[in-house]
Design brief:
By secondary structure, chain A is an all-alpha fold. Helix content of chain A is 74%, strand content 3%. Chain A contains 11 helices and 2 strands. Chain A is globular and about 55 Å long. The radius of gyration of chain B is 21 Å and the shape is globular. The chains are: A mainly alpha, B mainly alpha.
């Protein structure tokens, strides 16, 4: 039982980060119906950038994080303007290929700039672990989880109570209505990309400080965040967080018990198996919209 | 579009792929060139062409599933892996002849494709892409953790042999690959003109409307997956016997994405486009990228040892991005424009 609780706690804490990445995906999908398969690659390269600022240029950690957030806002705006906007109205195949190509472009750039190394992120969170009963949780995990939750609540409040956020909500409901109300759909698309990349940067830095800065971090996008948003439903912000937590828990608990039996690595495919099952049973996820299609 | 004043006087003429004497001459010249290529090209180039041929078979399969029928498949290389491992296990462990292992590998990959294509009955678009993405990771994971298939160490594969004749050199393998590419290409080209091909196109354009018109979605969607993965399996089998060594990490999501990219660069939905895209991208990757990376390492002190790999990736990604943004209809569309302007010259209208 103790072991189970430990796995469970670890799962929830990692799930918070997955939720953060998933939130970024849902933001873009909701507004512009683009599934950003490059999200994980952005996460990876932004974490590398933070590492570069902090270690190679010797900046203090808070400053490098702020710089990376600024870079991610600018990148988001540029990517939307020059890559995604020309593709409005193209079939889904084009969007899938363009986001994947963008992702591998980032991977190529990262290999060129930083090689295929694994580096440690400078510690900016104290090391001591928390203990609750028999369960030990590293303080970094708690910080990562808390950041995810705080960001999530802020985002919900933003969408609920600010004019700007409400405008973004309308665009995801109906673009025609949004335009007739004087909301610039183009600007909203650009803003969601900036928001989403900020999430990716935060998640990337948190994940890298828990584990390491490597190119493999890019797999979080495809292997963890995608199953998370499918579980939660592609259009739902709470769904992204819930999905992230569920994926984290399944991965940790399932991996913890099954990995020793099959010789390791099963935790990597658990989210994908989960995704396949969800796709077969209930493609719209827990909170997603069921669409009725007309000819 | 046919030029004004040219009429078909018989059904045979109407159906012909090769229509004029000039086309026959060009075709014969092209075939002669393909066959005589090893005589005056180095081993390096023959290797490039063989690899391009193998990839071309897989891309033609993807062209049928995704380009014709519109069912997005992000896991084509994992189905290649299924074919490669089936063929390798059958020839190396069971001792079946290559001529038998090749079709079995194709059918096996097709069967596995059916399993992962089955969700296409319920879902489409992004959802289907995700299901095939899961296939990519899950299939490779299964192979990686099956000890009898060599796991991460990989597996040695005997040379392909038909009767007593062993394809043990690059040149011999080249002829085998070329022959299979021609068969696969002709089959793909003809498929578009059959009832099945037209049903695929109808499903791609609007699957609900297609169903209303009486097309059996269940049958045709699964058939598209089966044929596409069958091609992948055959390509995988050739891959295994060509390299004589296979390893699960040769079959990555990145390559699957590139195959989709080749279809896009060539022009989605056109057989000629699939061929043009594959050949140009492979030449770019194997010949142009090393050149660029050589120049880069010469002038930039910062770049490291794996720069060749990175340059190939960056170049390819840039080409796809530029094509999607500037010319989403691909190389095939350019070819059409060139042909039309040649025919209409000197009166451009």
């Amino acid at each position: 039982m103790d072991l189970f609780l430990q796995f469970f706690a670890n799962g929830i804490m990692t799930g918070g980060i997955y939720g953060l990445v998933a939130l970024g995906l849902v933001l873009i999908y909701k507004s512009s119906r683009v599934l950003n398969l490059a999200q994980g690659f952005f996460l990876m390269i932004l974490a590398w950038l933070a590492w570069s600022f902090a270690v190679q240029f010797g900046l203090p950690m808070w400053l490098s994080i702020l710089l990376v957030l600024a870079v991610s806002v600018i990148t988001g705006l540029l990517v939307e303007r020059f890559i995604l906007r020309p593709l409005i109205g193209q079939p889904i195949l084009a969007i899938i290929v363009v986001t994947l190509a963008l992702g591998y472009l980032l991977e190529g750039i990262s290999i060129m700039a930083w090689g295929a190394d694994t580096k440690g992120m400078p510690k900016f969170i104290p090391d001591e672990a928390f203990r609750i009963g028999s369960v030990t949780i590293a303080q970094q995990y708690v910080w990562a989880f808390a950041t995810a939750i705080v960001l999530f609540v802020l985002l919900l409040l933003f969408f609920r109570y600010t004019k700007w956020g409400l405008g973004m909500q309308i665009v995801s409901e109906d673009q025609q209505v949004a335009r007739s109300m004087g909301i610039s759909v183009k600007n909203v698309f650009a803003q969601t990309w900036a928001f989403s990349l900020v999430m990716a940067a935060m998640a990337g830095i948190l994940y890298a400080s828990l584990h390491a800065v490597t190119n493999f971090n890019a797999l979080i996008g495809l292997n963890k965040a995608l199953p998370a948003i499918l579980l939660g439903g592609l259009e739902s912000l709470p769904g992204a967080l819930v999905g992230g937590l569920i994926v984290g828990i399944f991965e940790s608990v399932g991996g913890g018990y099954i990995d020793p039996l099959v010789g390791g690595g099963f935790s990597d495919v658990i989210p994908l198996v989960l995704m396949l099952i969800i796709l077969l049973i209930r493609p719209s996820g827990i909170f997603g919209w069921q669409r009725i299609e007309r000819i | 579009m046919r030029p004004a004043g040219i009429y078909d006087t018989s059904y045979a003429k109407d159906l012909a792929i090769v229509r004029t004497r000039l086309q026959w001459i060009l075709l014969a010249a092209f075939l002669a060139l393909l066959i005589s290529l090893p005589l005056f090209m180095g081993r390096n180039w023959i290797g490039t062409f063989s690899l391009t041929g193998i990839v071309l078979i897989a891309v033609l399969g993807l062209h049928i599933t995704t380009g014709l029928c519109g069912q997005i498949n992000l896991g084509q290389t994992s189905f290649m892996a299924v074919g490669a491992y089936t063929s390798a296990a059958l020839t190396a462990k069971v001792g079946l002849p290559f001529l038998l292992a090749l079709p079995i590998a194709g059918i096996m990959a097709g069967m596995v494709g059916l399993i992962f294509g089955a969700p296409s009955l319920k879902i489409k678009g992004f959802y289907l892409a995700m299901s095939t993405l899961a296939a990519q990771f899950i299939l490779v994971w299964i192979i990686l953790h099956t000890n009898s298939l060599g796991g991460a160490i990989g597996m040695n594969v005997p040379y392909a042999s038909i009767g007593g004749f062993s394809f043990d050199s690059d040149t011999k393998m080249y002829y085998l690959i070329i022959a299979l590419v021609l068969i696969a290409g002709l089959a793909a080209l003809n498929l578009t003109r059959t009832r099945t091909g037209r049903a695929f196109t109808a499903i791609r354009d609007n699957d609900l409307a297609a169903e209303v018109m009486g097309i059996n979605l269940f049958y045709y969607k699964l058939l598209a997956f089966f044929i596409g993965c069958l091609y992948a399996g055959i390509a995988g089998s050739l891959w295994a016997h060509y390299f004589s060594y296979i390893q699960p990490l040769q079959f990555t999501l990145k390559n699957s994405a590139w195959y989709l990219g080749m279809i896009i660069v060539g022009g989605a939905g056109s057989t000629l486009g699939a061929v043009l895209g594959t050949v140009s991208i492979n030449l770019l990757d194997t010949k142009f990228a090393p050149f660029v990376s050589g120049v880069l390492t010469q002038y930039l002190p910062l770049v490291r040892s794996n720069v060749t790999y990175a340059t190939g990736t960056i170049l390819f990604a840039l080409v796809i991005l530029i094509f999607l943004i500037k010319q989403p209809r691909g190389l095939a569309h350019w070819w059409q424009i060139i042909k039309t302007s040649y025919r209409l010259w000197p009166y451009g209208y």
